[in-house]
Amino acid sequence: MRLIRSHSAEWNLQTNRIGAMGFSAGGEVVAMLVYSPSTGDTNSADPVERMDCHADFQIVIYPGPLGVPQDKVPEDAPPAFSDEFAASTANSFRAAIGASTQTPPRPGRSDILPVRHPRP
Predict the structure, then answer these.
(1) What pLDDT is recorded for position 115?
(2) What 3-state DSSP class applies to 87?
(3) Long-range contacts made by residues 22-28, C-beta under 8 angstroms, separation at least 24?
């Protein structure tokens, strides 16, 4: 996270929209990152080590138990899915498949894409 933040200007990233996503064991790594962030060492000679390593959002998909809070999620934890993120993602997905908010739903199926199974 620090490395990404240290290159944010060079990579044209919005520093308030840098997050983390992980599946399974990767979800555990994301949980360890987002629930135990550190502000960095302001006295470090390494500019990357001076960077804050917080995430602005998290996407964990079937994470293992390591790193996930056992009691209560901290108040300052990054959102899993913000309304803005969900709306933006849905709009991007609709545009990619040529659908709109007016596309009628299919009964028993997704209102965005029909469900297709590889086998009959």
Answers:
(1) 47
(2) helix
(3) 22/59, 22/60, 22/61, 22/63, 23/61, 23/62, 23/63, 24/61, 24/62, 24/63, 24/64, 25/64, 26/63, 27/60, 27/61, 27/62, 27/63, 27/64, 28/63, 28/64, 28/65, 28/66, 28/67, 28/68
Give the residues of the chain that fall short of pLDDT 70. 81-94, 96-120
Please indicate, yes or no, if residue 70 is contained in any of the structural domains.
yes
At residue 111, the pLDDT reads 47
Q: Give the global pTM.
A: 0.57
Whether residue 22 contacts residue 55, with contact meaning beta carbons closer than 8 Å, is answered with no
Question: What is the distance between the alpha carbons of residues 58 and 68, in angstroms, rounded to a whole number?
Answer: 12
Count structural domains, the chain. Answer: 1
Residue entry with tokens 């009628």: 104
Q: What residues make up the domain containing 44?
A: 2-97
